[in-house]
Amino acid sequence: MSKLDGRNVLSRSSRHRKKRTLGKMFMLLIMLVIIGVGAFAGVKMLLNGDSLASASSVREDFVVTEVAAMGSAAKDKAAPTLYNGMKRKVVYLTFDDGPNVHTPQLLDILKSNDIKGTFFMLGENAKENPEIVKRMYDEGHYPGLHSMTHDYAKLYKSGGSKNFIDEFKEAQGIVNDIIGYKPTLIRAPYGSAPQIGEEFRGDIANAGFKMWDWTIDSYDWKYPGNPGAILSQVQSQLTEDTEVVLMHDREQTTQILQQVIDYIRSEGYEFEVYNPDQHFVCNFRHDERL
Ligand SMILES: [Zn+2]
Fold first, then answer.
1. Predicted TM-score (pTM) of this structure
2. Distance 102 CA to ligand 1 centre (A)
3. Is 248 a catalytic residue?
4. Is 262 a known active-site residue?
5. Which residues, chain by chain, have CB under 5 Å from ion ligand 1?
6. How many Å lie between the centroid of ligand 1 and the Cα of residue 57?
7. Dist. CA 54–CA 42, nearest whole Å
8. Per-residue pLDDT tens for 189-199?
9. pLDDT digits over 226-255, tens only?
């Protein structure tokens, strides 16, 4: 019997039953709609949650990519990133290849601005200039390490990490002999990438060192006689809340440092010195071991 046939033979009571059946079906439909809406809302929440998670991981990737693992910097420095209710913007000034004849002038400028810097010294230069190393340390700057020879072939072409680590241990010993403090933060000559691979980086970490590259390259070594170009470099690269600026103990750097400081300050940044107790990752490969 088709449904159509059945409709034709409906009695009054069967019509009444039909009404009740229709009523039940209507209730069922309402319930289905309610369940459907609930399920849709649930799925929507799940989707939203998922997209939020993706967004935050994308954001983290962005931070890590942009400022060399400053993502972990933000975590490690959670408390001090707020200052007077505002997000702190911090610059670490770093100076490589000293100490040398230009270093005292850099120290004078930093002192008059009440700024502590981070110096990555060559062991040989430290040995030749112990008074400068002492002054640097006494005035609150961080005495970082930058190898003994700065020789690309010696440091990177032997096929292993031994020469590199030996040079940094030697430099560490020299600085320790002068100031009685063993620095652990190093900077690889020419930067850590691409010449330092994953296993090499593990060896550096296992030797007890941390390694910083930089987020802003002032290219100061490139501009003798043209210090204004150094300022332009810093101006064009100063974008993130935490920046590590690469400079050198060079004459042109002493000529422009005050203006570099003035510019960075005018952009709302404070200056910090490397603090081993608040270490954060700043290397080109975002290697958390370093
Ligand atoms: Zn260097």
1. 0.72
2. 15
3. yes
4. no
5. 96-97, 189
6. 34
7. 18
8. 999 999 999 99
9. 999 999 999 999 999 999 999 999 999 999
